[in-house]
């Protein structure tokens, strides 16, 4: 798990694991150890990697699929909801988006803020059309 996440971060940053290790002050031998299935580095090393890539430790250890949540105003429940939504099949995601849009529009109508082109309506329409 850790190696897959570390390697993915290297790839999306157009870097190779061994040079990244050198930049962090980690030997190539330790980088090789990271490739072992089930291996997780120490907490200190996780912090070093997370700081290098500016990502969450939860992502590195597989507790989250979100690489980074920047100054998030999301609650832990909202983050969990998004993570769960991502695991559902596309048709189920579309159903949930339809329901959320419906509830959102009801609330906007109560407040007098409703418009036909709400952001969620556009997402819902795109999901139905696609």
Secondary structure elements and pairings:
Elements: H1 2-12, H2 17-24, H3 28-34, H4 43-53, H5 57-60, H6 76-87, H7 90-111, H8 119-129
Helix pairs in contact: 7-8
Low-confidence stretches: none
Alpha carbon gyration radius: 20 Å
* Percent helix: 55-70%
The proportion of strand residues reads under 5%
Keywords:
130 residues
Describe what you observe in this structure.
The chain is built from 8 helices and no strands. The protein is mainly alpha-helical and 130 residues long.
Task: Please provide a brief summary of the model.
With 130 residues, the protein is an all-alpha fold. It is built from eight helices and no strands.
């Amino acid at each position: 798990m850790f190696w897959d996440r570390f390697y993915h971060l290297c790839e999306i940053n157009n870097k190779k694991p061994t040079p990244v290790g050198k930049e962090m002050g980690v030997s190539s031998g330790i980088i090789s150890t990271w490739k072992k299935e089930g291996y997780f580095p120490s907490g200190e090393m996780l912090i070093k990697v997370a700081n290098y890539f500016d990502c969450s430790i939860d992502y590195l250890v597989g507790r989250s699929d979100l690489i980074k949540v920047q100054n998030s105003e999301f609650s832990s429940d909202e983050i969990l909801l998004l993570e769960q939504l991502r695991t559902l099949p596309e048709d189920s995601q579309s159903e949930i988006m339809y329901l959320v849009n419906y509830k959102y529009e009801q609330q906007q109508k109560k407040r007098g803020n409703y418009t036909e082109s709400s952001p969620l309506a556009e997402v819902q329409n795109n999901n139905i059309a696609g």
